[in-house]
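So, who can interpret the following?
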Amino acid sequence: MSAYHKNALRPGYALAEYTIESVLGHGGFGITYLARDNALGAEVAIKEYLPQEIAARDERTAFVVPGGAKDSIRHYHWGLKNFVKEARALARFKHPNIVRVLRFIEANGTAYTVMEYEQGRTLAQELKQAGQRLDEPALLRIVMPILNGLDEVHKVGLLHLDIKPENIYLRRDGTPMLIDFGSTRHAMTESRPAGRIALTHGYAPVEQYPDKGQLGPWSDVYALGATMYRCVTGKRPADALARYRAVLDYKADPLVPAARAEAGRYQPMVLESIDGAMQVYAKDRPQTAREFQDYLLGRKKRISAASPVPGIAPGRRERTPGRVARFARYVTILLMVAGLGIAGWLGWPEVAGLWRAVMEPVEAEAPNPHPGSDAKAKPGESSEGWELPAALRSIFNRISR
């Protein structure tokens, strides 16, 4: 697999102890090369920091040079600082499901991350070969190990921020790993208020858009849920910002829940977990990779987002017990006010008499210990020991008139 980029280093270029062989891929913020370790004879992948919107390569010197504008220089160095910081953090990991960073190099006015290279293909390529969908066992064989690696990344304060089928790599033996972390891209976007948003529509949660919330592990949970949605439905999920706006306008969520779209093809708890991970509001999702894994394994139960209570707008929560209690108090106060109004209409003396008649304990006639005796009910009482109070009869008569 080889690609072309006008700013890429040429094949045969010597970078420290490595020789560039070809371009593996490129994006708006960098280029990834296939290279050879001259000392060990092994192939490696090398990612170069090169944000093409604000920088270009000098063909004569191979240096990466930011644009002449003051803001371009500042943004370039801000992104470079984050690129190196991320490389150093990832170099501490030796997790089988996270891309292994061997070292980083600072050269040509930029930086390079040297990573292990293994034969395989991306999940996006796997989906293309599998007819755009994966069955449940195949899906879980990929997702569960990825969640293990993601949990370790989150524990040290790192976020991926670009999980999608293109960034999950399947080795030849089928084991998955996360590649191409996007936190540097996000850091650069935040430092450039007027810049283009660096995210993948459909997989990025709403909080990755400007001023739409705080990022955290729940952001990667959304992206992985969206990746699973793509694997079970064969379709790219609806954009999170469009979903957010629909919820605010009390319109239908443009995303068809996985539990509704794929009912019967996968276990309900798997589909419900996907829908839970893709909730619009971050607080409604699993908050960590481990929690998401627990839902997928059935260790935790949740109400499916695909079966909302009728009358509740998509994305809005059902009444909580606290809200129900407040509602009951309001109804009670309303009934008390109505009761006072009725009291004024009927006349307070009669109501007071009714209240006393109802509240006074009624002594029921003791059962006759001698059946057949001539014991009788007292005058003014029914044979069951109670009759309608006079005050209540008076009220009923007035209402009937």
Observations:
- Residues 191-195, 303-321, 362-366, 370-386 have pLDDT under 50 and may be disordered.
